[in-house]
Recover the amino acids of this structure.
């Protein structure tokens, strides 16, 4: 029987098409049925039209259906892929704008920090509903592949409370792997080890990355039989661009000894040191790209991308359809996991799974990101061992915040939610406890429509805000747009460079990976790489 793959949140700009094309590049999977679902009829129909056009142009036997009922899409599915942004850009705006009034300046706001914690409160109830549908109407042993942030909290809730085997997927490791490869190539040329014409591929560089999502550390880097982990600082400092664009990452590398997978802007908001004083933020970021630390940068590019896509959609639909070929697959893990489970061809990637002793000095049952292997036997996760102590300390602090945020989202526990905010590294570096309490109340009230589990808590939160204002006990708010915020371009402004706007509409979506400047010339991905330390494994996939 052909596979059925349910794609929930399929109205995303580019991600749905990218994943579908990746899967259809596998010859054995071209007859799959893609069941697309989104709460927006308009967004869903636009993406359905594009996907149908792509399939027909490539003369594939693929079936595509679309429905606003997620349960109908999930029925009889072998795999369920989730890419939702619960609350959309409207809620995302409050994740960024409300914390700013309390001095919390975020670049992305989708993992931890104030925005990420509230994002979990909106998303986890929806995911648990999908998990219920998977248990009740999907194929037995259907695998849930989650791309939605906040990755760790979402994946944790689905496994613990949704009772569905869930793997969280991110592409931060791949992007940083390409950065490391570029640094090694330049170093090796300078050392006379390779010619300047050598186009080094990341498959030549063996890495082990381990930690938690967006705080994963390259604890081993090997090339040409040499362990180059200790040379990473030297190489990154010598790079022509990274000392300008990756200031936070290089400073952490200098002090920790290990390079982080996550971008400069992302990493800066998970730590208590780089964004706590507005006057110093610009010292640590770079505005040549939003991901380097721009205040609310991801919100801006997502807003611009969505506005442009909706305006430019007729041009997207009339453009030539892409050729679906194996050498055009992205590095997103999802298609390779499905290929491995269905065909037996092995795949090595870095996946987000529950910690069962795989990282020994992080708490059991938190969600970790480590190397994993997929084949017909399932998805198996080897033991990594201990993280370096500084890396473990940083991850441990964030994992406790994630645990409190996840439990608060499941149970609608306002006190636990405020305690998660209180313990968040950046919020704690910026806010006094009463500011945290008030900020959380304000975010609860602003996002009430997406927080069904807090229905009974909204009126008391609103009353607390009113009482504080009436009695003069309300904390002092900051009148600021942020330390490094750029204006959102109008469609008219973007139309002055339509090609750039169209590229941004792709790049702002999670499905497009552009970390490597040579991506368009990247050869076909290799499905196997060297193994990390052998040890206990756990099956997180289909058996």
């Amino acid at each position: 029987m052909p596979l059925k793959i349910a794609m929930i949140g399929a109205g995303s700009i580019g991600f749905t098409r990218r994943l579908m094309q990746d899967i259809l590049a596998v010859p054995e999977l071209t007859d799959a049925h893609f069941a697309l679902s989104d709460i927006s009829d308009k967004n869903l129909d636009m993406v359905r039209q594009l996907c149908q056009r792509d399939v027909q142009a490539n003369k594939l036997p693929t079936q595509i259906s679309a429905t606003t009922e997620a349960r109908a899409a999930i029925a009889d599915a072998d795999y369920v892929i989730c890419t939702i942004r619960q609350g959309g850009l409207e809620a995302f705006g409050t994740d960024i704008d409300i914390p700013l009034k309390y001095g919390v300046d975020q670049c992305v706001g989708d993992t931890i920090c104030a925005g990420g914690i509230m994002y979990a409160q909106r998303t986890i109830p929806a995911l648990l509903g999908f998990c219920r549908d998977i248990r009740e109407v999907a194929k037995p042993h259907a695998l849930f592949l989650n791309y939605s942030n906040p990755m760790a909290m979402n994946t944790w809730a689905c496994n613990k409370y949704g009772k569905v085997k869930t793997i969280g997927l991110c592409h931060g490791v791949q992007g940083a792997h390409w950065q490391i490869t570029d640094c090694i190539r330049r170093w090796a040329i300078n050392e006379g080890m390779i010619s300047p014409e050598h186009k080094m591929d990341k498959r030549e560089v063996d890495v082990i990355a381990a930690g938690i999502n967006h705080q994963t550390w390259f604890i081993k880097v090997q090339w040409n039989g040499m362990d180059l982990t200790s040379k990473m600082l030297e190489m990154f400092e010598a790079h022509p661009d990274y000392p300008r664009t990756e200031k936070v990452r290089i400073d952490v590398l200098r002090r920790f000894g290990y390079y982080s997978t996550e971008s400069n802007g992302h990493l800066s908001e998970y730590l208590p040191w780089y964004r706590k004083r507005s006057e110093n933020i610009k010292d640590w970021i770079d505005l040549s790209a939003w991901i380097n630390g721009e205040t609310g940068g991801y919100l801006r590019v997502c807003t611009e991308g969505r506005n442009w896509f909706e305006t430019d959609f007729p041009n997207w639909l009339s453009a030539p359809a892409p050729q679906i070929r194996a050498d055009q697959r992205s590095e997103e893990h999802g298609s390779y996991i499905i290929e491995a489970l269905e065909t037996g061809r092995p795949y090595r990637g870095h996946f987000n799974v529950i910690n069962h002793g795989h990282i020994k000095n992080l708490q059991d049952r938190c969600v970790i990101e480590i190397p994993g292997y997929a084949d017909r036997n399932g998805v198996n996760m080897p033991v990594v061992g201990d993280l370096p102590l500084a890396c473990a300390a940083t991850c441990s602090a964030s994992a406790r915040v994630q645990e409190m945020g996840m439990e608060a989202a499941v149970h609608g526990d306002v006190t636990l939610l405020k305690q998660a905010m209180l313990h968040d590294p950046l919020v704690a570096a910026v806010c006094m406890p009463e500011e945290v309490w008030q900020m959380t109340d304000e975010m609860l009230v602003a996002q009430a429509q997406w927080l069904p589990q807090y229905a009974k808590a909204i009126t008391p939160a609103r009353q607390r805000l009113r009482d504080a204002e009436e009695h003069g006990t309300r904390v002092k708010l900051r009148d600021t747009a942020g330390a490094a915020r750029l204006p959102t371009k109008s469609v008219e402004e973007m139309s002055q460079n339509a090609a750039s706007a169209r590229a941004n509409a792709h790049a702002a979506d999670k499905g497009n990976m552009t970390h490597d400047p040579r991506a368009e010339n990247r050869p076909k991905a290799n499905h196997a790489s060297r193994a990390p330390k052998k040890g206990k494994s756990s099956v997180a996939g289909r058996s």
